[in-house]
Design goal:
A two-stranded antiparallel ribbon has the order 1-2. A hairpin with a 2-residue loop joins strand 1 and strand 2. It is mainly α. The chain is built from 14 helices and two strands; from the N terminus they run ααααααααββαααααα.
């Protein structure tokens, strides 16, 4: 049975779950039972949808380890072995004393005999799951900024939730083509808060993108963002020039590069 993860179906009841930031034992148990029921009747795509909500929003729940394990089981049954391996390894690392960790170890031994040439294909599903978690993060980030009659008010709890989800996406799927985007979005989240301290934190996140994912378009975007923040928000011409020059250096071999053109224009304005 081919697994179909469609964003519209994955978002059912998300607004209701988002409203509960603290772990609600009864709610999580209800979701777990529903996920297990779906798994038992082989509705694996819907089971993953339900169980992934526990992993994303209730990491301190007593059912967190079982949810990770069941997601792995669903993925194995659908033949999505590389992604299943990611969830099982996460379970073993984070909950080594759990009885489900022992089961996960047994499944990993089995997976190793089946996965030799399948990695490239299965990462396509990794990208979809990573996108889903990033969607959750963007929703939390949006809720962290509330318009009032006095201006925009920032809510720390939602902001921290967004950062946690961006980090989760990158940690769970480090080989996904979406991983650099997850790192970049953390910088964007800090940048949107419009304070000197947060601009500096944004720059640190963007630097991570350049260092960890130097051969991606996200590294170009990160350098551009660093230059723009230093010039427009911090008044730091020296660092702005360094960022724009680095952007030019990275892309000078590309004919008619937008990044080179943009950086050269900004350097002329600064100087």
């Amino acid at each position: 049975m081919a697994i179909l993860i469609v964003v519209s179906s994955l978002m059912i009841n998300i607004s209701r779950i988002h409203a509960q930031q603290e772990t609600n034992g009864a709610e999580v148990e209800k979701m777990l039972k529903y996920g297990k029921a779906l798994y038992e009747v082989e509705h694996h795509d819907k089971a993953i949808d339900t169980l992934l909500q526990i992993v994303c929003f209730y990491p301190n729940s007593k059912h967190y380890d079982e949810a990770l394990y069941l997601i792995g089981e669903c993925l194995i049954n659908e033949g999505r072995l590389a992604v299943a391996k990611t969830f099982l390894e996460k379970l073993i690392k984070e909950k080594p004393e759990s009885p489900f960790a022992n089961k996960a170890k047994e499944n990993l031994k089995f997976l190793e005999t089946l996965m030799e040439d399948w990695e490239q294909y299965w990462y396509k599903l990794e990208d979809k799951l990573c996108d889903l978690i990033l969607y959750y993060g963007l929703q939390a980030q949006g809720r962290s900024m509330r318009n009032t009659e006095y201006g925009v008010v920032f809510e720390d709890r939602e902001f921290k939730e967004a950062l946690r989800l961006y980090q989760l996406a990158e940690t769970l799927f480090p080989n996904s083509i979406r991983a650099p985007k997850a790192c970049y979005l953390a910088g964007e989240a800090y940048r949107a808060r419009n304070t000197y301290a947060d601009y500096e934190k944004a720059i640190n996140e963007y630097k991570k993108v350049v260092e960890k994912y130097p051969n991606t378009i996200w590294a170009n975007r990160a350098l551009k963002a660093i230059g723009d923040i230093c010039r427009d928000n911090l008044g730091d011409k020296k660092r702005a020039i360094e960022a724009y020059q680095a952007l030019i250096e990275r892309n000078k071999h590309i004919p008619n590069s937008y990044w080179v053109s943009y950086a050269e224009t900004q350097l002329k304005i600064i100087k």
